[in-house]
Design goal:
FAD/NAD(P)-binding domain; 12 helices; Elongation Factor Tu (Ef-tu), domain 3; alpha+beta; 17 strands; 458 residues; 16% strand; 2 domains
């Protein structure tokens, strides 16, 4: 056994299991605390570690043109337990990686229970004891109420469990600027603004009326039973709920046209305007301001592409509404996922603000490696931001545009997507952009592995 003190990992989901595995591979003992089956959640059905509670798909496995497929490849190269179990239990699913959920969870449970450097303890942790030197909290969107309360006290966050109504995010290069234009309302400049910080998409009266009709008729996602009593976060209403309160509500709310004039048509006043605000520091992603929604994804694409300037919009993320628990990570976490106010605590998985099975596991992988380096007396080294791991980490810890008001929350969970990657140089054809981003990521990950990370044991 290792002479090093153990790292305590709280949560036996994909992220926690991957973190514990990475610790063990680095020769650092891990104690994995999982409250199930002693205490279950409304979504889980078994006592297995890494139980998949929703879909059995890890999405695209294409590492040449898909950001999540690239993340799959990077995780495999970094010795991921989650990807090893997924590959061993995959099912026919075309270009996607789908798994036999029972076989997948059973394989991970057996592997960790039989790993000498991992101790699996079936117990609920309400508050990590102060004598634990290094802790990774990977409890996901269904964090138990007592632990969520403890996290609130440590972070100062006013709310952690709420209906997270999130707005769609659009790739900037898919917006039609022959229709849209840049301008802040009344040309006002903020602390980091220029007076032209928003992308504006104008609607005529007829277009606005048709848009409201489409919102009211669109198919919505139904609540699950355990979500029925969870409140909206900060009174953040879905756009279709606002539309139900009156046909002019949106026009005097998130779609108000006042203080906005297209400089190409100064005499034409729009009846309503959809604004998009920069969402990442690279300026490649813009979110639809006030467009949080519970419309089904196909409906969002259909309806939002009727907005002038967004007819060919490509979405990095579509809107959603679900019970969620996540930190305001860009404010609270350092670049290695440690809580700035209490560095012995590190967070991983969906609680950090990533979406998806694979993304959650990838952040667990990084958290485990960072914690292992610290326990060995080494300085954790960050993956290049040009890699899928680095791009996701950068978004969580410092890539988001943070609001000036410390009390506000603009950070939202995100799947890995190419909009999170540093842009390529000018002259790269759009038709080969994805392949070029993947090729750059593979080369940079290889250099990072060769320079900083001991190769995984075969």
């Amino acid at each position: 056994m290792s002479a090093l003190r153990p790292v305590h990992v709280i949560g036996g989901g994909l992220s926690g299991c991957e973190a514990a595995w990475q610790l063990a591979r680095a020769g650092v003992p891990a104690i994995l605390h999982e409250m199930r089956p002693l205490r279950s959640t409304p979504a889980h059905k078994s006592g297995h570690l890494a139980e998949l509670v929703c879909s059995n798909s890890f999405r695209s496995d294409d590492a040449q043109t898909s950001a999540v497929g690239l993340l799959h490849e990077e995780m495999r190269r970094l010795g991921s337990l989650i990807m090893r179990a997924a590959d061993a239990n995959k099912l026919p699913a075309g270009a996607a990686l789908a798994v036999d959920r029972d076989g997948f969870a059973a394989a991970i449970t057996a592997t960790l229970e039989n790993e000498p450097l991992v101790s699996v303890r079936r117990e609920e942790i309400i508050d990590p004891p102060s004598e634990w030197d290094s802790v990774i909290i990977a409890t996901g969107p269904l964090t138990s109420a007592p632990l969520a309360d403890a996290i609130r006290l440590k972070t100062g966050e006013a709310a952690l469990a709420f209906f997270d109504a999130i707005a769609p995010i659009v790739h900037r290069d898919s917006i039609d600027f022959s229709v849209a234009w840049f301008q802040s309302r009344y040309d006002k400049t903020g602390p980091a603004g220029s007076g032209a910080d928003y992308i504006n998409c104008p609607l005529t009266r007829l277009q606005y009326e048709a848009f409201v009709d489409a919102l009211l008729a669109g198919e919505k996602i139904a609540f699950r039973d355990f979500e029925a009593t969870t409140p909206y976060f900060d009174g953040c209403l879905p756009i279709e709920v606002m539309a139900e309160r009156g046909r002019e509500t949106l026009r005097h709310g998130p779609m108000k046209p006042f203080g906005l004039t297209d400089p190409r048509h100064p005499d034409v006043k729009p009846h309503a305007v959809v604004q998009l605000r920069q969402d990442n520091k690279f300026g490649t992603l813009f979110n639809m301001v006030g467009f949080q929604t519970k419309l089904k994804h196909a409906e969002q694409v259909r309806i939002f592409r009727t907005i002038p300037g967004l007819h060919h919009a490509e979405f990095a993320r579509l809107g959603g509404l679900h019970r969620n628990t996540f930190l305001n990570s860009p404010r609270l976490l350092d670049e290695t996922l440690r809580l700035k106010a209490m560095p012995r605590l590190r967070f991983a998985g969906q609680i950090t603000g990533c979406e998806g099975y694979v993304e959650s596991a990838a952040i667990g992988l990084l958290a485990g490696r960072f914690a292992a380096a610290e326990m060995r007396g080494e300085r954790p080294r960050l993956p290049p931001p040009t890699t899928a791991h680095g791009a996701l980490l950068h978004h969580i810890t410092c890539g988001h545009v943070v609001a000036a008001d410390p009390g506000s929350r603009t950070f939202q969970p995100m799947n890995v997507n190419f909009g999170l990657f540093p842009p390529l140089g000018r002259g790269t054809p759009r038709s080969t952009k994805k392949q070029a981003l993947c090729a750059r990521a593979r080369a940079d990950l290889g250099a990072w592995i060769d320079a900083t990370v001991p190769r995984a044991a075969e």
